Amino acid sequence: MEWADEVIRSRLCILVMIDVATRMPLAWVVSDQPKAEATLQLLRMATRDKTREKRIYGCEGEPMPAMTIGMIRNDNGTGLRNSEVKTALLGVGSAITDVRTHASADKPFVERMFGTTESMLLKLLHGYTGRKPGELPAYDANKAGVLDIDVLYEIITKFFIDEYPSLKHMGVGMGGRRPAEVYNEINKTRGIFKAVNEDLRRKHLGWKFKLKPNDEGVRVLSGLSYSSDAFQKAVDKWKGKVSVFIDPDNLNFATAVFPGDPELYRLDLQTTIFADLTVVEYLDLMASYRRENPETTKLYEDRIAKVRLERQELLQKIGVERRLPRSYVTFEEARTKAKALFASSQVVRTRVPLDTVAPGSLATASSGPGVLPIGDAEVIDLAPSNPAPETKEVQPSEKQRPKQKSKTTRKPIRLGRPDQEGEFS
């Protein structure tokens, strides 16, 4: 029966809720598993404002506003008759009526609505499977199922906001009037059910989280932070976990409940970038933030790796004690380390060559080791600034030898300090 499971998983169902007095659609949900979660989503949509759908899909009609469900008459499916759904409805103050099995006369209003929807819309959609198995023997619904779930929901939304409320209805109490006209008349004469309290609605129809609060409030779904002044005061007296409820269709607020405390605490969304978003839009936004071009990822990852490598090399080159829990060295530590470094060591002075001059004085020096006169100078002052252990005799070259007026041979010039006090002549 694997093929049957595959077919069942691929089939989509439509859950619809209508207002009996006006025949106006209240909510519609497309799901592959019409269980309790799909029914709760249907109840959330029925009790909230649907202007969002009108704006997103460009509808011209006016959908039903948010209201309380006075009494609900449900089908016998497992997604409707279960403890989770019944508890939620009782929590928001709604009465529940279970109809008989295989008794369509107990719910004629929704049966008539489904008949109209099927004949005017569903039969025209690609992938329509029929009302019962074998109704379309020559039609392969699986191969023809080419509509995306978002496109399908857009088509159904436009039908329930613009088309169905504008159709003439011949049902009991309608008299050929259109559902939109009946709604406007009843709203002017008697008024509609007021909207349910938002905190109560979130508590019984929303998503529940058991969280540990902190000084900043609570965080839901790893990125949605909520808090309020009254909640923070209550947290100071509480040490355990609290129950936090959110509406997946509107993340602007959350409701917190402390065990044993009947008060409902309304929490404000702390990150305004997520305001007016649904859970799906929030997750898509975070996914788009985390998704990036592979080349961009490589660029930033290389940059991070380079910075980390340079930091590691810098830490290895630091001359201070690397195990110290400080960014500086103390006086005693420096003295102790210097003593250890220079123990049993001898400082050797570098001998300066005689034929050199001090750095930076090559162009300005007039005398000294390595400085030779240019011209007719007869005296060469080669006295070194530092005592030299050795002396040398230097014979001047032909160009450097001064002109002699007589044939008398001149004594060679002795370098170094004089043997006795005095100056060279």
UniProtKB/TrEMBL annotation:
Matches recorded under Gene3D superfamilies: Ribonuclease H-like superfamily/Ribonuclease H
Sequence segments annotated as region (Disordered): 375-425
Domain Integrase catalytic: 1-187
Residue ranges, compositional bias (Basic residues): 402-414
Compositionally biased residues, Basic and acidic residues: 390-401, 416-425
SUPFAM superfamilies found in the cross-reference section: Ribonuclease H-like
Designated name of the protein: Integrase catalytic domain-containing protein
Upper taxonomic lineage: Bacteria, Pseudomonadati, Pseudomonadota, Alphaproteobacteria, Rhodobacterales
